[in-house]
Design brief:
808 residues; alpha+beta; 38 helices; 57% helix; elongated
């Protein structure tokens, strides 16, 4: 079915002009009925799935590069590349493409996809016959050569023909020899022409020319030509930098000469692209795509050669890195080598990159980082941080697994994560650049979203327990140290949250605390149980709110954001903690101190209360109105606090209505059925409860003695039931006890029995226990006793305190 099958890697060019590896498979060219034409098919070698299906279109421009690459564009901004393992396979597929398009396989580009002008249609002649005719390579003709090179850049076909002409008869090498002559003669005009020529040749975007220009014999002359930019008064000294300033350091001797040559070449070509060549304009950005690809595939080859062909190399590097006898200077070079090595590894395809980092992990890279990140050398610590970021980005689970397997030392500071946290805290950079990077890495490590690997379902629980046990106190230490409670001020204002305002005035310290608060805010949102326990145990929110006094507004906003995230959880445990600690006080003080300034701090505080209002968090609304409304009622430019007061009043009205409905129900039942209640037969099925009521019905005057006999029980129950007022009506009183609020008996926690009306209007008495209080309810409500008025007066005096709070 297929003509050939060759092993290839499929690449696509992403938006950042970098090549992404799409997989490895085998390519074939065959007729596809659905596409109605000969197509390139690539099936994955792992599972046979289809990686690529691309029809060979007669209008598509295919380009052959470096003998083993075929590159083309299928749509706007969608570039594809096939990288062949063998040159023979590339040649065979290239011939098939040229056969379909009717082109000569000797060419390295098949089409001009851009310009359909008459000039280029005229040039659509046998491609080998009319090459661009180059002037003789002489000093006097340099201007003519420069004009020719510049003129062809707008036409892909003419660029192709010029490239073929330049590669014939060693023309490029002759030009570079003229450079040496011009420099010896100090011929500035000739050197300026050579700059234009070499720059134009690079923009031809031809891999075959790059192979010549970037060879060991020619590359320094190419760099020399690019020093003489006509726009500069004095030439740059790039060659001096490459030969004298930039030093190639072999931390471990590299014996493979080809590998050494490839490393040198890649560094110099990268230097040309990044430093020497000007930033390409929008119209020139595609001219150097082949140069980018050249560097990319060089890096892939270097990493592969280091990892595979020299197996003992990495082992020896790690042995020296972890050896205590290694000098600091040597260790610094080893760390920098690994930093560059990890950076190069990003060019590997995913499966090879996975193998690469697993190899580093097995060799002990994380153990080595623990040692290196504790060194005093700032450059070494920075390089180690970069390596750590590569590892965390690759596999957070791998780092977490290593951390949890570390032997539990008596000193928690030796743990890798604590070393990272301490480096973040001790960052000497005034802008805290390293601390910001490390904070991002910590957040990745503690993010439950990347702890969902099905192979280890307990990872989240185990790691978070580990982190909060061994690491959280290290992270919060600077925060707690800068928010020390002032006991004297607490004595002066009992119940206040006033704390000694030792808020950091130092900008760097304030920035650090802001980073820590950002991480803690992340924890509140993602670590529901662990962070809640930590906040409660450490009274952390109270300490954080000290920072509302900071002169740095960004730090006060961070503290406010922390509280806002806590309230946003809508968790009653948090709400009770805030109410008990009176923790709205520093927030409201800040709002009042801010005055009439309409700034971000004002808006953020208003939004906090607006959220409470919109979500109707009853317990917090009651607390705010009961304690702070007098201070807040003057704020009229928003309706937030007026709305909170309205919700508070509505809830009070609802509770009042519920109480009144209960009162009406019980009163009606007693009025209608009073006679029937007292005339019930002694043998009624109510059992012991009725037996206890009969002496009270028949001998009311003996009830005082009955009260004395049941004094303890009566004192517990009588407050919960209606009493007669002087006007003959009834009223309710409430107990302060939690049991009363929850509808339970204060003594034993059992539900209190109640009297309700049945559908036919008769009382239905529950008999939850032999000592049911239903009968006593009736007796208290129906018999007038001398001491009722005294009890009523006491109830009236205590009623404001006995009013149940919302949400209780």
């Amino acid at each position: 079915m297929s003509d050939t099958r060759r092993r290839v890697k499929v690449y696509t060019l992403n938006e950042d002009r970098q090549w992404d590896d799409r997989g490895t498979g085998h390519v074939s060219s065959t007729f596809v009925e659905r596409l109605k034409g000969i197509s390139l098919l690539v099936r994955a070698e792992s599972d046979g799935s289809l990686l690529l299906e691309s029809k060979i279109s007669s209008n598509t421009a295919y380009q052959k590069q470096q003998d083993t690459l075929i590159v083309w564009s299928e749509a706007e901004n969608y570039d594809l590349a096939l990288s062949f393992q063998e040159k023979a396979g590339c040649d065979e597929i290239w011939e098939k493409i040229c056969q379909v398009q009717g082109k000569d396989p000797a060419l390295e580009i098949t089409q001009d996809p851009i310009d359909e002008s008459e000039e280029e249609r005229f040039e659509e002649m046998p491609e080998t016959s009319h090459l661009v005719e180059l002037p003789p390579c002489e000093l006097a003709r340099l201007e003519e050569i420069a004009d020719l090179v510049t003129s062809v850049l707008s036409s892909p076909i003419r660029r192709e023909k010029l490239a073929l002409a330049l590669m014939s008869e060693g023309y490029m090498k002759k030009l570079l020899q003229l450079f040496q002559v011009c420099e010896d003669l100090d011929n500035r005009e000739g050197l300026h022409h050579l700059y234009e020529i070499v720059r134009g040749v690079l923009f031809l975007n031809k891999a075959a020319l790059f192979e010549v220009m970037f060879s060991d014999d020619c590359i320094m002359d190419v760099v020399g030509c690019l020093e003489y930019d006509p726009a500069l008064v004095q030439p740059k000294r790039h060659r001096e930098f490459l030969t004298k300033t930039a030093k190639f350091k072999e931390v471990i001797p590299i014996t493979d000469s080809e590998l050494r040559q490839k490393i040198h070449q890649t560094y110099r070509v990268q230097y040309i692209q990044d430093i020497i060549l000007p930033t390409p304009s929008v119209f020139e950005e595609n001219f150097l795509s082949t140069l980018t690809s050249f560097i990319f595939f060089n890096k892939v080859e270097i990493v592969s050669m280091l990892q595979q062909e020299d197996e003992k190399f990495l082992t020896e590097v790690f042995a020296q890195l972890t050896d205590e006898a290694t000098e600091d200077g040597k260790r610094r070079e080893l760390v920098n080598f690994f930093k560059e090595f990890c950076a190069f590894s990003q060019t590997l395809q995913p499966q090879n990159r996975d193998a690469f980092f697993k190899t580093l992990a097995n060799l002990g890279i994380l153990s080595a980082l623990e040692i290196v990140m504790g060194m005093d050398d700032l450059l070494v610590r920075a390089a180690a941080t970069d390596i750590f970021s590569y590892l965390v980005e690759f596999s957070p689970s791998m780092v977490r697994e290593f951390v949890m397997q570390e032997p539990q030392q008596t000193d928690d500071d030796v743990l890798l994560i604590n070393v990272v946290i301490k480096q973040m805290i001790c960052d000497s950079d005034p802008e805290l650049g390293g601390a910001v990077q490390l904070m991002g890495l910590l957040r990745t490590l503690i993010d439950p979203e990347n702890m969902l690997a099905p192979t280890n379902k307990t990872e989240k629980t185990e790691f978070l327990s580990f982190f909060y046990k061994y690491c959280m106190q290290v992270l919060t230490a600077p925060l707690l140290a800068n928010t020390v409670e002032d006991k004297h001020s607490k004595d002066l204002q009992e119940g206040s949250t006033k704390i000694n305002p030792v808020c950091p005035d130092n900008f760097q310290t304030a920035q650090l605390l802001a980073l820590i608060l950002e991480l803690l805010t992340f924890c509140v949102e993602h670590h529901t149980y662990h962070i809640k326990t930590y906040i409660m145990n450490k009274d952390l929110l109270r300490r954080v709110l000290v920072l509302m006094n900071s002169k740095h507004t960004f730090l006060a906003l961070c503290a406010l954001r922390f509280m806002r995230r806590i309230i946003g959880q809508k968790d009653e445990y948090y709400n009770r903690y805030i109410i008990k600690g009176n923790l709205f006080e520093p927030v409201i003080n800040t709002l009042l101190d801010n005055g009439t300034r309409y700034n971000l701090l004002n808006s953020a505080i208003i939004e906090l209360f607006e959220f409470i209002k919109v979500e109707d968090i009853k317990s917090l609304i009651a607390h705010i109105i009961d304690n702070y409304y007098k201070a807040l009622e003057s704020i009229q430019y928003v309706q937030t606090f007026k709305g909170l007061k309205g919700l508070y009043e509505q809830e009070k009205d609802r509770q009042t209505q519920r109480l009144n409905s209960r009162y009406r129900r019980e009163t009606r039942t007693l009025d209608e059925d009073e006679e029937m209640w007292f005339n019930e037969d002694e043998d009624d099925d109510e059992g012991e409860a009725i037996e206890k009521s009969r002496p009270e019905e028949e001998f009311p005057e003996s009830y005082g003695k009955y009260i004395e006999a049941k004094k303890v029980k009566e004192s517990e129950d009588k407050e919960n039931f209606p009493k007669r007022t002087p006007t003959g009506s009834f009223k309710f009183t409430f107990s302060h006890s939690t049991g009363a609020a929850n509808g339970t008996n204060g003594a034993n926690g059992k539900p209190a029995a109640s009297t309700t009306a049945s559908p036919n209007g008769s009382p239905v008495k529950s008999a939850a226990s032999p000592a049911t209080p239903v009968v006593k309810t009736g007796m208290v409500g129906l018999v007038d006793y001398p001491d009722d008025e005294d009890e009523e007066e006491e109830d009236e005096e205590q009623s404001p305190r006995k009013r149940p709070r919302l949400g209780s």
